[in-house]
Amino acid sequence: MPVNFLDNQKRLYWIMAIVLLAGLGISAVVYFNAESPDADSYEFRPEDSRMFRHNLEVYGGKISLAVSDFTVWFSELWHGRQLAYTIAFITLAVCLLIFLAARYLVIEHDLDRTE
């Protein structure tokens, strides 16, 4: 029994819809359950002090400062409301890849199969 082109494409579209709904749903749950930071509290981090940044530059150079800034930024992506934005972005990227696979890869595969 031959597999129809529309069957493969529809399957990928359904998978994309499920991934989109699940990812955005999880992102919404994380967003609404995340605690917002208090305006009165100030979190002191050593990497924010001028002395730390100066010593880091003296011992490691400008590259060390850049790596430290990148590490702090990357670690902040996985906490609180920023985590919800990260999940939503990853979900949209995966859905885009699935859409492109359904649009182009399945067409070429099925056209080669029918000839």
Question: Can I get a quick summary?
Answer:
The chain is mostly helical.
Chain-wise SSE layout:
Layout: H1 5-33, H2 50-76, H3 80-114
Helix pairs in contact: 1-3
Description:
With 115 residues, the chain is mainly alpha-helical. The chain has one domain (5-34, 45-114). The chain is 79% helix and 0% strand. The chain has 3 helices and no strands. The longest helix has 35 residues, at 80-114. The protein is elongated, with a radius of gyration of 23 Å. 2% of the residues are buried.
Distinctive features:
115 residues; 79% helix; single chain; mainly alpha
Fraction of residues in helix:
over 70%
Task: Report Rg.
Answer: 23 Å
Number of helices: 3
Classify the beta-strand content into a percent band. under 5%
Distance between the termini: 16 Å
Anisotropy-based shape:
elongated
Task: Tell me the number of strands.
Answer: 0
Would you identify the regions where 5 or more consecutive residues have pLDDT less than 50? none
Overall number of domains: 1
Structural class: mainly alpha
Major sheet: size, sense and barrel closure?
none
What is the N-to-C order of secondary-structure elements (H for helix, E for strand)?
HHH
Mean pLDDT: 85
